[in-house]
Structures are given as C-alpha cells and as structure tokens.
Design goal:
Layout: H1 2-26, H2 31-54, H3 70-83
C-alpha cells in the first residue's frame, strides 16, 4: 500500500510538472509575429470596408414640383384623397 501511494504521488508530480512546462512553452509568443498578424488583419478589414463602401448606390430622384404654400399642399392632398380608390 505504501508503494502504491508513492507511485501515485510520483505520477501526480510528473503530470503537474509536464502540464506546467507545456503551459510555459505554449504561452510564449513572438511579438513580431503578432504585429504581422495584426497588420494582415487590418488590411483584410480595410478591404472589406472598401468593398462595402463602394457598394452604396443611391438613385434619389430630384423633386421637381414644389408647393407654393400650405394651402396648395392641402388642396392637392384633399384632391388625391378624394380621387383615390383606397378605403380604410
């Protein structure tokens, strides 16, 4: 029983040391690589933005008729309402 406990403790310590060393090795990054990746991502985002920005097309029609006064507008609104076939 004493031997099994000793084996278990040794195995546990080995696993802790292995996991710790693996964590230390995997967490080290090269700042130069990170900067290059950030620049590449920035160029990618800029290309996406430019693509979307060039896609905006507004075909707004210019307004040619203007109302002379509120009374003209109201008369036009009433005549349109009377002539329309829509009922509420």
């Amino acid at each position: 029983m004493k031997i099994n406990l000793l084996r278990f403790v040794m195995l546990f310590l080995f696993l802790v040391c292995f996991a710790g060393s693996l964590t230390l090795v995997s967490c080290q990054e090269d700042p130069k690589i990170r900067i290059l990746e950030q620049e590449k991502e920035a160029k990618k985002q800029e290309a996406i933005f430019n693509s979307i920005n060039q896609g905006w097309r507004f075909n707004a029609q210019t307004v040619t008729q203007t109302a002379g006064s509120y009374r003209d507008w109201e008369t036009d609104r009433k005549s349109t309402r009377l002539n329309s076939s829509h009922r509420l």
